[in-house]
């Protein structure tokens, strides 16, 4: 099981494609920084390859004014939730 951290906006289509090819059945994706824009209802199609195993960092949503526009299939977690994800996944990889 791997935790994938993604900070790229959904405009970085090559990064999302590479990530979807590396994403395993027990993996989880955490959207941080500009990747929060992918969690919006209008952009969430880019997250379909990840099968609902996607969360977004609440602090980054709030700082970008996106908290009210998130697709309901994307989980919202705070820093404690981020820590819990790192504890439950064997490895972590950052996509920057």
Automatic annotation (TrEMBL):
GO terms for biological process: tRNA wobble position uridine thiolation. The keyword Transferase applies. Keywords: Transferase. One of its GO terms (molecular function) is transferase activity. GO terms for cellular component: sulfurtransferase complex. PANTHER family: PROTEIN TUSB. This is Sulfurtransferase complex subunit TusB.
């Amino acid at each position: 099981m791997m935790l994938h951290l993604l900070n790229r906006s959904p405009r970085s289509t090559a990064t999302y494609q590479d990530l979807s090819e590396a994403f395993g059945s027990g993996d989880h994706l955490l959207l941080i920084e500009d990747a929060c824009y992918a969690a919006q209802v209008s952009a969430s199609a880019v997250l379909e390859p990840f099968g609902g195993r996607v969360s977004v960092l609440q602090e980054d949503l709030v700082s970008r004014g996106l908290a009210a526009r998130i697709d309901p299939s994307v989980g919202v977690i705070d820093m404690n939730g981020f820590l819990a994800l790192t504890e439950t996944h064997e490895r972590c990889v950052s996509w920057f």
